Amino acid sequence: MNLATHPIEAHISFSARAFLSTLEATSLGPEFSNTGVIPSNFKDGLFLSHLLDNPNRPRRTILYLNHTAKMGGGEIALLNLVTALDKGYYRPVVVLAAEGPLVGKLRSAGIETRVLPLAASVLETRKDSIGLKSLLRIGQAGACIGYAFRLARLARKLRADLIHTNSLKADLYGGLAGRLAWIPVVWHVRDSIDGHYLPAPVAAAFRGLSRIIPTAVVANSESTLRTMRLGRRKVAATVYSGAAASPGAALDLAALAGDADIRRTVVHDGYDAQAFGTRHPPAAPAPAAPVVVLVGRIADWKGQHVFIEAAALVRDRFPQARFQIIGAPLFGEYEYERSLHRRVAELGVGDRVSFLGFREDVPALLAQADIVVHASTLGEPFGQVVIEGMAAGKPVIATDGGALPEIVIPGVTGLLVPMGDAPVMAEAMAALLSDPARAAAMGEAGRLRAQERFTIAHTVRKLEGIYEYLLR
């Protein structure tokens, strides 16, 4: 492919062309292209069943790349994934571009982890404040290309079979590293690729690159996959996260294959079933002191301000209700955090709303809650906290954008409300607080749905099927 004629050139600076020229110079052969013939027995699942159930298949080394070691949603998902992989068939090696809490967590879990530092100018570039020219200006393009060469050397040294990238920045340098090392690359896209979540030029360029760089694109939701706009040259498949709660349960390989191309597919992130345990149907929430929680990093688009406004509207009807905000700023959102504290004081709800900060014991806190709220004001790419709330047997109130309608069944496992609408969110809170029996029934339905579709065991099984298909 002549990358110089690709439509995304209109968005790219001269230094970005150098980055793409490097990709062109390292173009993989047809065996790693995004075209090819799907086996005739792929659609009925027999092909994948043969791959996964073959006890003589070789042990694969998978190189997982992530640019940050801070504990965001994508990093939690990565930790869950590599911990749950079948180590008899896979050797996961995680390469992070900076030190941080994730390093210790991975090593404590027995995962081979390396820190290969990346230039601070690249690491500190925020995806919500950049244009493509700043993303790939001369200094950053050079740093990314140099870093990719280092990764390629490491991949060859480790005899890696495949590179799995876990963040937008890792997609770029990891994609180039895969080309240089002549091994396939899986982009695991966990962010919405649209003009609301990213600057429009960056989103457009990323979509174009997704058709050039990776061997396969895996999205964490149908919503995320739609924002990729990969075209109709191949049909995108939907792969839900499991049909049973126990590790080792059988995977419906026919559903995985369908009429689709497994190399552009959806794999929802799963939760760790053991962290939440097996529990009996919950009793109705005690009306004496109900607790409503919101879990997520402190950021404007996560909607903590909407949650606070809704709490203020509910306080007179339910004076004993308490509201907890669990999470902390991860990427410099300290002024927003201060504004939340000011708003709590202005509304006079300081005795009702508590800021618990970053917590390691989220499953325990969810177990003590009565209602879990997810208040994002932009379409959420997935919604790990919603899954965890359901797994804890709690009714969920979530906004109706992004992937959340794929997870929450309105009126069955929880309620969906418009994004940014505090009065409607308050009404949803009041509806569940005033009807504990209904809330308990929703919580139980949510727990069963989480066990049936969203456990990490099934997420892993599906990704293993993708790996084997690409490496066959």
Question: What labels describe this entry?
Answer:
disordered N terminus, about 475 residues, Rossmann fold, 2 domains, alpha/beta, about 15% strand, six-stranded parallel beta sheet, 20 helices
**Tally of domains:** 2
> Distance between the terminal alpha carbons, to the nearest Å?
25 Å
* CATH architecture group name of the largest domain: 3-Layer(aba) Sandwich
Radius of gyration: 22 Å
Q: Largest sheet at a glance?
A: 8 strands, parallel
Which percent range describes the beta-strand content?
5-15%
**Bulk shape:** globular
Assembly category: single chain
Structural class: alpha/beta
Helices, by number, come to 20
The overall strand count is 14
Tell me the name of the CATH homologous superfamily of the largest domain.
Answer: Glycogen Phosphorylase B
What is the mean pLDDT? Answer: 80
Fraction in helix: 40-55%
What's the CATH class of the largest domain, please? Alpha Beta
Low-confidence spans: 1-16, 28-47, 128-132, 233-260, 280-287
Order of strands across the main sheet? 3-2-1-4-5-6-8-7
CATH fold type of the largest domain: Rossmann fold
